[in-house]
Amino acid sequence: VSSRPLMVITAIWSACLALQMTLVALWGVSWLTQGCGLPVHLARRCMSIVGIGVMMGAQFGGWIGTRFRGSRNALLSVCGGVSLSLLGLLAATSRYPQPLLLSLLSLVLGISLGACNVTCSSNLNETVDREVIGSAVGAVNTVIFLSVMLCQSVSGIVLGFFKGGSPGSYSLPGYLTVFSLVLLVFAFSVLPLLRIRSFEEMGLPARQKEYFDMEPIMDVEVDFEAMMAERERIDNALLGSGLAGPLILGPYPRLTS
User: Fold this and answer.
1) CB of 143 within 8 A of CB of 14?
2) 26, 55, 66: which is closest to 182 by C-alpha?
3) Number of other CB atoms surrounding residue 132 within 10 Å
4) Are 200 and 60 spatial neighbours (Cβ–Cβ below 8 Å)?
């Protein structure tokens, strides 16, 4: 297994899920209510739309994984979608926090996140040898869970420096700082992707090994067919010479008709 593509996939996947969990499961509603002044029900609706977008993006990511198997550019495109939609959400909350615009950006961000998750999973399957795919998935998931925990902890520490007007609340600059840092981390995780040509090429040696491992079996099948053809030729010769015996009556009854 080549370590570079595996590390790139792990970094991108970790940053993607850290962003998703930190936004949807932790600070998203507070960001829109405390920082932008949106009513609670509208803020919750925006975060629910992100979740709906993630489900839609998962289907889109499955199509990408099938249509553009092992493509670096496909993963790069969905990562660009994540970055641009989060950047748009940051700009909208600071300049124009209108519910319709925030809902639209939340949907695009959710679709991009869902597509990124599934595309990373598809490329991981292309990169890792079949013999160690279970161990690789377990190790990657461990790193992802640790990244989510670290991101949520650090984001809370950063927000602690931006107290709001009431106890337990935080100001808009604090939320903008947190998610700008998350965006920066995500962008840095994507940069090594530019040095990879294709995940399918990285996984090619493993598939070549599987093919060559099958060659002895293929040779056995060819030899068996050749042996049976030779056996039938001999039996036909025996039948033509009048020396047909139990051999013809047994294995090849069709020759006696």
Assistant:
1) yes
2) 26
3) 12
4) no
Report the alpha-carbon angle 219-220-223, nearest 5: 85
pLDDT digits (tens, 9 = 90+) for 6-21: 999 999 999 999 999 9
Question: Each residue of 219-246: pLDDT tens digit?
Answer: 444 455 666 666 666 555 555 555 444 4
Cβ atoms of residues 101 and 46 within 8 Å: no
Block residue for tokens 């981390």: 185
Contacts of 55 (CB under 8 A, 6+ apart): 110, 114
Residue whose pair of structure tokens reads 């297994």 in the numeric block: 1
233/220 Cα distance (integer angstroms): 20
DSSP designation for 132: G
Cβ partners under 8 Å of residue 4, min gap 6: 192, 195, 196, 202
Q: Where are the alpha helices (DSSP H) in 128-203?
A: 133-159, 172-190, 199-202
Ranges of H-type helices in 23-132: 28-30, 40-67, 72-95, 99-127
Token pair in block for residue 56? 């839609």
| Residue 123 CB partners (closer than 8 Å, separation 6+) | 5, 9, 65, 70, 75, 199
Contact 40, 33 (CB under 8 A): yes
Q: How far apart are CA 175 and CA 4, in angstroms?
A: 33
